[in-house]
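Re: that backbone. Tokens:
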């Protein structure tokens, strides 16, 4: 019996050694036999080892293995595990070997990792910068070499070249092994010539002109300023977007069954220019037959229809329809109905070419505000944000106040973005608000120089913080040294004194400025305090104390100017009241700003005068993100107790903030003897502007304008002899503040006056 057992064990051991030897020399892609002899079915895996890995964690490899210690040896499972390991894309080679181990098998996975990418290079690119190309890649140094990823990045680069107009660019990736474990990827690039868009044409359009259609397209033919507005390049994805814009244009003009065909794209012989022709089948135009509303109880049908733009007999417009739905939702939102749902139904009458519009209103339940959560603020304190939100927890929902809250937070100019997300609690008429902000730098420090159209060469230094310690306070220290002007200024503003809607501040200054025939020095400051007494209204009082000195008066200066030579003290009190409903302080599109300012001087000083100024600006949104801006300014100043009005307190016109076709101060009364412009007691100025986007992503806008007005002496008829100018300009919300570059043309120039004036400034818009 013992002999039989020894014989059986010897035969089993021999069979096991033979099988193990076969496994050790098995090639990687060898398919394990699905048929396993009965004698091998119970061979148990005692140990699993992983060898050869350098960057890939052993735990990552083991997590892909189905075969575990203690399992029965199964070639089919090992084959599947090898396939899984290849699938993760980290290995060039995988070998599996076995050896006897404590009555079972030791399974060894020997892996050969792919090389590491040492560097990604570009060769042949001249038109597009290497840094721009590198931004398109998802391959990074020290990552494992992946052929599929290399191919994907090749397509990304090719797509980028097509976006820039290089349709014939050839890109070939070359992989070079520089050591046993490292490789360098070089993208060989042949850029070819840039393909420009020669023309865009339409076929079949009769109702709408080609010019009108092109206005809604981003795909535009090449012109002399394409380098600036980034037009003139054919981009397939942009063209597909334009087709939807063309369809929307027709829908907004009543052509609800318009068909826009596939564009035909053709190249010239040299393949340097491309032409696009878009076929259009316009169909019939439809008008509005009737508009009806049902389901409404909170508002009458007459009240709701008064807010809609779609009227019976007018051309049907989907854009107007969308605006009508928004307007009705806004009406209900202001009454706390956050869950209102307005469903439109449009029935067409093919014979009459009309549409019947039916609006079904589900008014929903009255909603209230739940929690208000503030997020994203790192520096700014929660209370600074919360005090600008016009709703409190527990208040009735109000869409108008929510919109105003966004405007107020944006106008703080502390944040790049402001998002107010409304989250309804499941099953409850309660809305939680998530106010998410992304802060931007509010501190500013600069040292530099420039050229001002008024003050000529200027050296500048400024340190300011618009959100001091996250409390919303503003502090600024500024110095300007110019050939005509020198000034030093310090200011501090507290927008919420003692956490009340009371603002206060102080401003200290020392200024010297050279005028045509004299120099004026002013040192002093003012303090102010005011209160906001409604959503759009505020008023305040101020006190100014300054010492003014006129010196270096030229011999030929006006006698009236010479009489003011020397030191004078100005001690005055002021009052102002303002209503500001603009949607933005820096780039308003709608709303208005109206202010009345009064000043009375003579509280112990040398000057005795009273002054009043009324300034009114109105913004009217128009199509395509454009705006009309109308402004009017009227002012009066007079002396009392036998004193005349000081020259520095009189009104002057001309320059970038009043009549832009004239130099600053060169409009109004002149001294007949000396020819000096001496300012006036009265002023009346009108400005009309049309503002439109030029480069929206860079916040650059264009403006065309017309100005009219004048300044009058006390003995001149108020409102007579208007001066006129017109012009154009560019406005940019730059990182250092609003920049204006405007050219004005004098429409009625007189002898000695310039025909036109080009001016620029960095500061607030008027």
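Recovered sequence:
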């Amino acid at each position: 019996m013992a002999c039989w057992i020894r014989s059986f064990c010897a035969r089993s051991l021999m069979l096991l050694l033979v099988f193990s030897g076969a496994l050790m020399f098995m090639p990687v892609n060898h398919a394990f036999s699905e048929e396993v002899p009965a004698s091998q079915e119970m061979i148990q895996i005692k140990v699993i080892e992983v060898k050869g890995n350098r960057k890939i964690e052993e735990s990552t490899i083991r997590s892909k293995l189905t075969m575990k210690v203690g399992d029965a040896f199964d070639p089919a499972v090992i084959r599947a595990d090898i396939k899984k390991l290849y699938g993760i894309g980290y290995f060039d080679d995988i070998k599996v070997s076995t050896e006897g181990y404590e009555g079972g098998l030791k399974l060894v996975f020997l892996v050969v990792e792919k090389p590491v990418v040492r560097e990604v290079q570009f060769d042949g690119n001249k038109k597009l910068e290497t840094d721009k190309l590198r931004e398109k890649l998802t391959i990074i140094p020290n990552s494992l070499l992946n052929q599929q990823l290399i191919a994907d990045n090749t397509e990304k680069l090719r797509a980028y070249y097509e976006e820039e107009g290089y349709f014939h660019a050839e890109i070939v990736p070359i992989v070079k092994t520089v050591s046993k474990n490292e490789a360098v990827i070089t993208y060989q690039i042949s850029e070819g010539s840039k393909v420009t868009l020669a023309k865009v044409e339409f076929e079949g359009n009769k109702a709408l002109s080609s010019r009108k259609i092109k206005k809604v397209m981003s795909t535009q033919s090449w012109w002399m300023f394409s380098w600036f507005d980034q037009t003139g390049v054919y981009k397939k994805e942009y063209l597909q977007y334009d087709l939807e814009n063309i369809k929307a244009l027709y829908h907004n003009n009543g052509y609800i069954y318009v068909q826009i065909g596939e564009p035909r794209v053709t190249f010239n012989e040299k393949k340097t220019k491309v032409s696009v022709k878009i076929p259009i089948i316009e169909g019939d135009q439809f008008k509005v037959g009737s508009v009806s509303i049902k389901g409404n109880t909170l508002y009458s049908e007459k009240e709701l229809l008064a807010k809609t733009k779609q009227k019976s007999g007018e051309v049907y417009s989907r854009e107007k329809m969308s605006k009508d739905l928004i307007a009705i939702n806004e009406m209900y939102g202001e009454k706390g109905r956050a869950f209102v749902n307005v469903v439109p139904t449009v029935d067409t009458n093919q014979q009459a070419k009309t549409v019947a519009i039916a609006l079904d209103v589900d008014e929903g339940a009255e909603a209230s505000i739940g929690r208000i959560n503030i997020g994203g603020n790192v520096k700014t304190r929660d209370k600074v944000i919360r005090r600008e939100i016009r709703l409190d927890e527990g208040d009735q929902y109000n869409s108008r106040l929510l919109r105003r809250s966004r405007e107020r937070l944006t106008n703080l100019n502390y944040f790049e973005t402001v998002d107010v997300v409304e989250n309804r609690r499941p099953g409850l008429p309660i809305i939680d608000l998530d106010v998410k902000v992304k802060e931007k730098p509010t501190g500013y420090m600069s040292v530099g120089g420039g050229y001002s159209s008024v003050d000529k060469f200027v050296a500048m230094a400024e340190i300011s913080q618009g959100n001091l310690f996250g409390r919303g306070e503003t502090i600024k220290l500024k110095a300007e040294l110019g050939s005509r002007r020198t000034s030093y200024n310090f200011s501090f503003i507290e927008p919420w004194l003692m956490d009340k809607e009371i603002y206060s501040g102080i401003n200290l200054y020392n200024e010297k400025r050279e005028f045509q025939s004299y120099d004026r020095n002013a040192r002093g400051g003012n303090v102010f305090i005011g209160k906001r007494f409604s959503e759009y209204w505020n008023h305040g009082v101020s006190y100014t104390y300054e010492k003014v000195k006129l010196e270096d008066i030229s011999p030929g200066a006006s006698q009236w100017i010479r009489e003011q030579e020397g030191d004078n003290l100005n001690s005055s009190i002021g009052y102002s009241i303002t209503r500001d409903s603009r949607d933005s302080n820096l780039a308003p599109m709608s709303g208005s700003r109206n202010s009345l300012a009064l000043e009375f001087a003579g509280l112990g000083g040398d000057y005795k005068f009273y002054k009043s100024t009324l300034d009114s600006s109105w913004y009217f949104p128009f199509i395509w993100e454009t705006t009309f801006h109308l402004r009017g300014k009227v002012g009066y100043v007079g002396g009392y107790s036998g004193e005349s009005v000081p020259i520095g307190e009189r009104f002057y016109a001309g320059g970038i903030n009043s009549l832009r076709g004239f130099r600053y101060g060169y409009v109004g009364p002149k001294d007949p003897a000396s020819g000096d412009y001496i300012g006036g007691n009265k002023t009346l100025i009108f400005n009309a502007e049309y503002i439109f986007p030029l480069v929206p992503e860079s916040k650059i806008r264009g403006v065309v304008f017309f100005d009219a007005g004048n300044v009058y002496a006390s003995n001149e008829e108020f409102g007579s002899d208007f001066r006129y100018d017109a012009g154009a300009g560019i406005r940019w919300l730059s990182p250092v503040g609003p920049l204006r570059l405007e050219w004005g043309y004098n429409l009625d120039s007189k002898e000695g006056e310039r025909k036109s004036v080009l001016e620029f400034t960095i500061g607030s818009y008027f």
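Residues 252 and 318 are 5 Å apart (CA to CA). Residues 441-495 form one domain.
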